[in-house]
Design a protein that fits this description.
142 residues, mainly beta, Jelly Rolls, 3-stranded antiparallel beta sheet, 1 helix, 43% strand, globular, RmlC_Cupin_sf, Cupin domain protein, RmlC-like_jellyroll
Length: 142
């Protein structure tokens, strides 16, 4: 899994775009944790095989003990745990991911919750989204 994350990071670096932290207006009304997701990279892909797709890298932070709200990602999602341990319930299955591990979420699956397992330390994810540029990377659960 680390190889996937490193490959994607290298791919993004190869695009030659500087990272800029900002909010994504398409996701403005979705609050999953007490911190707003921080988009650190965004670029429209012009490669003919995947034209008109957008790649985003987002930092998601969890306060100590914080549990996220239910949500969905309408586009493919790859997450990498930068810090801490995260319990994630996706499509009815719960798994604990530790620092240095990566995981995949299929589009539109129900992400019932994510929980920072520590009561004293923040947890952080680096999340990659790749999909049509007009879609938000997160939506409220329905």
């Amino acid at each position: 899994m680390k190889k996937i994350s490193l490959t994607l990071l290298a791919f993004c670096a190869a695009l030659g775009v500087s990272a800029q932290a900002k909010k994504d207006p398409k996701c403005a009304n979705v609050n999953v944790t007490q911190y707003e997701p921080e988009v650190i990279f965004k670029r429209i892909i012009t490669t003919p095989q995947i034209k008109s797709q957008e790649v985003k890298m987002v930092i998601v932070k969890f306060a100590p003990g914080e549990v996220s709200g239910a949500h969905r990602h309408p586009i493919p999602t790859i997450a990498y745990v930068l810090q801490g341990n995260i319990s994630s319930t996706f499509n009815g299955k719960t798994h604990i991911y530790k620092q240095g591990e990566a995981f995949w979420e299929d589009p539109n699956g129900l992400h019932a919750e994510s929980k920072n397992m520590s009561k004293t330390e923040e947890a952080k994810l680096l999340v990659y989204f790749i999909g049509p540029k007009e879609l938000p990377f997160i939506t409220a659960a329905k």
